């Protein structure tokens, strides 16, 4: 099986990234408070990656070949032009800042890949890629692609403040993306927000311990266009070979199902919050409630055949509702000339559920996600269903083992049954892979010339599917290396594996992400050196958790397939950094 040491020794990779970034800015001051600005920029990245799997690598042994080489060259170019006009004015107790502009962006991506296998020696790696026998056998790989997309925006924003008491902001964007259907390329995205500083109200009686207090609210619409180009168009690609006159001819045919109605995915955001400063600015606290409705989800849907040719198509189906609370607390308990200490805690509580996965054309109340690989036939582990939370694990419920060590499960009536009697109707929602609470805790201490920083993170209220335990933690497996847990914590299970909530574990953790210590050297007055500072930093210091797998902080908890530890995850490294900064 794959293991990190084997990957390190038997998979050789080399990457070369070259970046070129350039921009030109021109500004014309028309009159006081009114100016116009033009920015043109280009970012280019040329990326070369070469990889070689030796004859001792797992994939070489599994496929009965002596080494494999692959070389990829790709280019990404992003060009941008933005023209903005600004007007700022202040009079008496009024302040106005306005902005109007136009933006043009274009992305180009291209790539060339070549691969070969069965080399006479591992010494060449990818430097003699033509020497592999796959080239003569017609099994070598050669591919390339190029795509482009464009985004155009016109926008305006007005910020108004009166007497440092009332603050208002209104904005509008109209954006067009080449990725969408011919009649749906443009989207409108307005937003507005406002705030009131309560401590400045004439009738407000301000206590001595309250320095500042304000409330705010806002509403806005944003759009998402992060999908591959050409999904709205009918594209063509290779669909096999055809034998004619003794020769094999490459055949091309429809590669995608066109969707001329493809349009922007839109999110409607609403929030209301408050922020207060207390005790002579030693304590700052803020809390916000938000609600977000995402509609016209960009979703890969099962196509209707006929009239569609391919199995899937990208379309706008579905609505997701999310709401939650975000907060931040900053406390400065010590502020003297010699010692300053600041601690801050930020966090969020979020819940999301799928309101709909259907529309007038498509009807789909649920879909299954993340099909587990063989051996066996474990099936899907996540179910996306209308009215249910996002990221919900779906499977059978563990009911112990029988006298022979075979896993038993509960059926839909709550009865303990043999897994051979199980049906799809016996499955249930068994937990969720999205953390309910995410926290970040930062602490900074300064004592004379010494600066110390500790940064913690924590995720709470979620489960992780431990695939290592599922595939490597049971005795009744093919002849492979097993975890010691197969004979200890899982020693009572002697039969075949069954996907159930036994393999779900709490993912809660507290992690010390980084510790840094800096020292500013005292200097005598001189004309050359102004400052010298040394620093030692350690990242990925430790993680406190009850989860038995790898570091839970490195397991994805976003998207619609969260909380699954993949079998190929690579252990996180602890990194030590030493630095010296000299100012002249």
Shape designation: globular
**Proportion of beta-strand residues:** over 45%
End-to-end Cα distance, whole Å, is 55 Å
Number of strands: 31
Low-confidence stretches: none
Q: Give the helix level as a range of percent.
A: under 10%
User: Structural class, please?
Assistant: mainly beta
Q: Give a short account of the largest sheet.
A: 17 strands, antiparallel
Number of helices: 3
Please state the average pLDDT score: 94
Which value, in Å, is the CA radius of gyration? 30 Å
Which terms summarize this structure?
single chain, 584 residues, mainly beta, 17-stranded antiparallel beta sheet, three-stranded antiparallel beta sheet, 31 strands
Report on the structure:
This protein is mostly beta strands and 584 residues long. It is 3% helix and 58% strand. The chain contains 3 helices and 31 strands. It has a 17-stranded antiparallel β-sheet. Strand 20 and strand 21 form a beta hairpin. The longest helix has 7 residues.
In brief:
The chain has 584 residues and is mainly β. The chain has helices spanning 4-10, 58-62, 467-472; strands at residues 11-31, 34-53, 68-91, 94-117, 141-162, 166-177, 186-197, 210-224, 236-244, 247-254, 265-278, 283-295, 298-302, 312-316, 319-335, 339-356, 366-371, 380-385, 392-395, 397-401, 407-410, 416-417, 428-432, 437-447, 450-460, 463-466, 504-506, 509-520, 531-545, 564-565, 575-583. The strands form seven sheets. The protein has a 17-stranded antiparallel β-sheet. Strands 20-21-22 form a three-stranded antiparallel β-sheet, with no helix packed on it.
